[in-house]
């Protein structure tokens, strides 16, 4: 069966899904550039200096509209893409675990290269590992998939589980950056050699494993499974009617989550219970859930505007960047490396919140234009083409002059 797998024939793309991917890319970079500008090790101290009105406003915009909202969107779309591709292969009796294994293996290698050579905050390698796991659940019932999605999202004790497991393994992630402080990290990034930067990225990755495994991985897995559920039920074939159907619950959800997020950010900090050791973890968990639901609300409102208003023309350009999601995601890290490290302009810890927000928006606008130009000559982005070619074990045609079939035209994974 493995040898019978071939790229699928050309079919009509679903533009709205590409718009969603483009929108997610914008939000991901707006958040990531803040971390590229100042790592977690020194971020709180660095942020204290930005007290101007415009920077305070930019920080509120980031808190209210960006933090923890776009990673869930990106993850859901990845899970949806896996299910879309798998269902097409299954319908043709060509579904093969080894095919997905190879596909995720090469994505994992791309992610590892991203960590070492560009930026330690990669999620592609995580997507590859979790994506392989999710493919094992394709044949499970909708109830099981939804239950697991809810479980991984709501389970409140990841920190305790990780603390226990790390203790049993005598593993202390904090030791990897024990020889670094904010000043030393600044020196390495701004003035150190590329080799020093590579070493620092590896150490940062190891030090950040608790966040990766205790926060990002469960959240990604939950959204993967939700995407898998939506894909299995072919939601992409009736997006317009589905978006109309869930209008009322989504509006209620958006209202409730926004009320709580405003209370958490601007009201609760003035009360003692906000700092209570027993209550604070639950306040934070509720905030994370509110941000996740806000991300889902973003998808709904974009879909509603797409189908019901004349604003579609404003959203359409996002689809160009979305069709090259993997290429643009990695390109953002290349640009970040050039902006902030010694191999480029050495701007690490020099940009204010308003400046990082402006730069991220400008870079994404460039990516939209670049993607549109690229796709006028080529069928896929360069990294998408490389990943597909490795998956199918042959160099696939990439130029638009080719008369051969286009692989995986409806595929949603990245």
Please write the string of helix (H) and strand (E) elements: HHHHHHHHHHHHHHHHHHH
Indicate how many domains the architecture comprises. Answer: 1
Number of helices in the DSSP assignment = 19
**Which band does the percent of strand residues land in?**
under 5%
Uncertain spans: 402-413
Total strand segments? 0
Tell me, briefly, the overall form. Answer: globular
Helical content stands at: 55-70%
From the alpha carbons, calculate the radius of gyration and give it in angstroms.
21 Å
- Major beta sheet, specifics? none
Structural class: mainly alpha
Give the N-terminus to C-terminus distance in angstroms.
25 Å
- What is the typical, i.e. mean, pLDDT? 92
Short description:
This protein has one domain (about 1-390). It has 19 helices and no strands. It has helices at about 15-35, 45, 55-65, 70-90, 95-115, 125-135, 140-155, 160-170, 180-190, 195-205, 210-230, 240-245, 245-265, 280-310, 310-315, 320-325, 325-340, 355-375, 380-390.
Model description:
This protein is mainly alpha-helical. The protein has one domain (2-392). It is built from 19 helices and no strands. Helix 1 (15-37) runs antiparallel to helix 18 and helix 8 crosses helix 11 (209-232). The chain is globular. The protein starts with 14 loop residues before the first helix and ends in a 22-residue tail after the last helix. It comes from Salinimicrobium catena. Residues 230-394 form the DUF418 domain.
Q: Which features does this protein show?
A:
DUF418 domain-containing protein, mainly alpha, globular, 414 residues, disordered C terminus, 19 helices, single chain, 69% helix, Bact_Transport_Assoc, DUF418, transmembrane helix
């Amino acid at each position: 069966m493995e040898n019978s797998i071939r790229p699928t024939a050309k079919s009509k793309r679903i533009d709205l899904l590409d718009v969603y991917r483009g929108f997610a890319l914008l939000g991901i970079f707006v958040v990531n550039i803040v971390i590229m500008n100042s790592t977690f090790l020194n971020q709180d101290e660095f942020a204290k200096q930005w007290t101007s009105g415009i920077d305070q406003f930019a920080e509120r915009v980031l808190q209210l509209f960006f933090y923890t909202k776009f990673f869930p969107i990106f993850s859901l779309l990845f899970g949806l893409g896996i299910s879309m591709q798998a269902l097409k292969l299954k319908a043709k009796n060509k579904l093969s675990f080894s095919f997905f294994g190879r596909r995720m293996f090469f994505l994992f290698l791309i992610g590892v290269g991203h960590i070492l050579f560009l930026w330690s905050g990669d999620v592609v390698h995580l997507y590859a590992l979790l994506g392989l796991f999710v493919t094992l659940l394709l044949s499970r019932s909708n109830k099981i998939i939804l239950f697991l999605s809810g479980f991984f999202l709501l389970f409140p004790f990841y920190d305790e589980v990780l603390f226990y497991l790390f203790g049993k393994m005598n593993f202390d992630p904090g030791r990897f950056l024990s020889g670094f402080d904010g000043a030393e990290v600044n020196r390495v990034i701004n003035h150190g050699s590329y080799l020093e930067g590579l070493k620092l990225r590896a150490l940062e990755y190891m030090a950040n494993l608790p966040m990766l495994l205790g926060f990002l991985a469960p959240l990604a897995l939950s959204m993967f499974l939700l995407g898998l559920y939506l894909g299995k039920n072919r939601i992409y074939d009736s997006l317009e009617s589905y978006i109309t159907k869930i209008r009322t619950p989504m509006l209620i959800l958006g209202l409730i989550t926004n009320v709580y997020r405003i209370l958490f950010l601007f009201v609760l900090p003035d009360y003692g219970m906000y700092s209570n050791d027993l209550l604070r973890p639950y306040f934070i968990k509720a905030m994370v859930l509110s941000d996740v639901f806000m991300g889902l609300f973003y998808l709904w409102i974009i879909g509603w505007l797409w189908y019901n208003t004349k604003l579609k023309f404003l959203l359409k350009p996002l689809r160009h960047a979305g069709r090259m999601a993997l290429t643009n995601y990695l390109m953002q890290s290349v640009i970040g490396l050039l902006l902030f490290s010694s191999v480029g302009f050495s701007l690490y810890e020099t940009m204010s919140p308003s400046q990082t927000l402006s730069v991220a928006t400008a870079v994404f606008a460039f990516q939209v234009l670049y993607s549109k130009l690229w796709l006028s000559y080529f069928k896929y982005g360069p990294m998408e083409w490389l990943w597909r070619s490795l998956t199918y074990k042959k160099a696939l045609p990439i130029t638009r002059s080719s008369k051969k079939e286009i692989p995986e035209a409806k595929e949603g994974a990245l």
